Amino acid sequence: MNTDPHFSGLTGAVVHDEVVPARAPWLHHIKASQTLRIVDLEGNQAVDFLLYSAADDAERYSAQDTVSAQGNLFLRQGTVLRSNEGRAMMTIAATSVEYHDTIGGACSCESNTLRYGHHTKAQHACVENFLEANLTEDRGKRDIVSNINFFMNVPVESDGALGIVDGISAPGLTVDLRAEMDVVVVVSNCPQINNPCNAFNPTPVRMIITE
Amino acid sequence: MATLANPLAARDHARAMAGTVVDAMPKVPAVADDLPAGVSADDLVWEETIAAGGYATRKLARGSRLRLIDLEGDACASLLIYNADMPSERLNVADTVKVQWNAYLGAGKLLLSDMGRVLMSILADEAGTHDTFCGTSNASTNSAKYGEGRNSGAYPNGRDRLLLGSAKHGLTRRDVHPCVNLFKGTRIEADGTINPQIGPFEAGRSVVLRAEMDVIVVIANCPHVLDPRTEWTVTPLRASAWRGAVTEEADSVRTATPEGLRAFLNVEDYFRV
User: Fold this and answer.
1) C-alpha A135 chain-centroid distance
2) Checking phi first, is residue A24 left (phi over 0); if not, alpha (psi -120 to 50) or beta?
3) Coil, strand or helix: which one is A97?
4) Which of A44, A47, A191, B248 sits 20 to 30 Å CA-CA off A27?
C-alpha cells in the first residue's frame, strides 16, 4: 500500500515517477489508456503543456478545437483534450483544481519584450523549453501551437478583458490525464517571474504515470 | 453535348468560356468602383469574391490595406497570417489576446506573431462580431453536423480550406495554426461559457486591416464551428487590397498601448537591415 498522498486515488501500477525541476522542460511518451498525474508540489506552478500524436505528430493538441467542442474556455474534470483534427487525445479524468487555462499561451522571450519590456528578453521562457524538448524529436517552431496551462488562472471579463491572475491551485493538488491514443507529452515547467502564474516563484512538479 | 474528338475542338470549346462572369471569382486585372477616397485605382492589388465554402490566399506587402466585406451578412472569414519571408513566424492567437489584455477584436487591435511583432492591425471595423477562441471547423465536426465535410463534397470545412490555402505557399499540416474568425463572434460568460454570435447580420459590413509586415494571408469562408443551424449556411466574402504607406511613427494604432508600441518597435527593428 502506497501511503504517499501524491498517489491518492491512483489504482494502476506505476510505470514512471519523476520530479521535473523548476524552469525545466520535460518530454515523455504515454501509451493509450495510461494515466499521467501532474502534482503541483508547492502550489500555483503553471505547467505549460503540449500534446502530439505519437503515430503522426502533425496531429497535435488544439486549444481551439478543445474549447469549441465543449462550448467552454475552461478545462475541467471531464474535458476531452482534442487534436487539430478533432480527435480525442487525452481526457481530464480527475482534478482537484476547479479549472485550468488554455487561452493564455506560453511565455516567450519575444512576447516578454511586449508584456514587460526588452529587459526581459534574456530571461528563460516556456517557448525555449518547448523548442529544446521538441528538437530532440525533430519537431521545431512550426510545431508549437496554443498550449494548456495546468494550474494557471486566466479569467475573461464581460468586456473581453483577460489576464493571468492569482492562481487557484495549492500544494499537492493534481490533475489526472488519461491517454486516449499514444501521445507525446511536451511540458515546460514555467520559468516566468514577471506575473502571478507561478506565484513569482517557479517550483518543481511531479509526474506520475500509471497503467 | 458537343463532341470534342480532337485537340482543336477541345481548344475552341475551352476558349468559348472566356468572359464568363460568376459571383465568386477574382477580377484580373483588379478593378473596383468603391475604393476609399485617396486610393488610386492603380494601387489596387487584389479584388476577389470568395465563394461560400471557398478560400483564398495572397501575399501582401508591408503597408497594404486589406478590406473584407461580408457581402450578404453571413460570411465567416477564418484568417491565418504568416510572415511571407519566414513563414515559421505566424499569427499567435494566445499572444494576441494576452499581450493586449483583451480577447475581443475591433478597430485599433493588433494581430501579433509568435515573435513579438505585429503582423496586421485592424484599422476599421463595422462588424464588432469576431472570435479569437473557437478556431474553425474540421472534417469530423462537419461530418457530425452536416453528414460530410470533405473538400470534394458540398460542405467543406474550414481547416481543410486553410490547409489547401497554406499548401499553395508550400506549407503543410504542421503550419496550419490557430486562426481568428472575422464577422462571426463569440462572447464569454464568467464561468467560461462560449456564446457564439452567428447572425445573420446586416449585409455589407466591412473590416479593414493593415499589413504591418510582408505577410501571407489565408482566408477560409466556411460556417463558424459553433454555428447552431442544422443547414450548412455561409455567404460570399469579398476581399480587396491596395498598396498603402508603412505605419508612421505617430500613428495612433502604433502608439495606443505600451505593449503594442513595443511590438511595432520590434517590427521596425526587423526591417532595419
Assistant:
1) 18
2) beta
3) coil
4) A44
Q: Which of B140, B166, B174 to mutate to test the interface with A (most CBs of A within 10 A)?
A: B174
Residue A194 burial (CB < 10 Å; 0-12/13-18/19+)?
A: middle
Residues of chain B with Cβ-Cβ distance to A114 below 8 Å are: 95, 99, 112, 116, 259-260, 262-263, 266
Residue ranges per domain, chain A?
13-210
Whole-angstrom Cα distance, residue A33 to residue A89?
Answer: 11
Residue B176 falls inside a structural domain:
yes
Query: pTM of the prediction?
Result: 0.97
Provide the grid cell at B230: 442544422
Q: How far apart are the first and last CA of chain B?
A: 60
- The phi and psi torsions of A118 (rounded to 5 degrees) equal -70, -10
Residue type, B192: G
Phi then psi for residue A77, to 5 deg, are -55, 130
In a domain, B86, yes or no: yes
**How many residues does the structure list for chain A?**
211
Domain containing B52 equals: 41-270
Residue B72 CB neighbours (<10 A):
16
pLDDT along chain A (211 residues), means of 10: 89 96 98 98 97 98 98 98 97 98 98 98 98 98 98 96 95 98 98 91 97 95
* Chain-chain contact of B103 with A64 (C-beta, under 8 angstroms): no
Residue B28 domain flag: no
Looking at the domain assignment, is residue B172 inside a domain?
A: yes
What DSSP element (H or E) covers A115?
helix A109-115
Q: Is A103 on the interface with B (CB under 8 A)?
A: yes
Backbone angles phi, psi at A65, to 5 degrees: -65, -35
Place of cell 462572447: B187
- Counting the structural domains of chain B, the total is 1
Distance of CA A159 to the CA centre of its chain: 27
Distance CA A24, CA A31 (A): 23
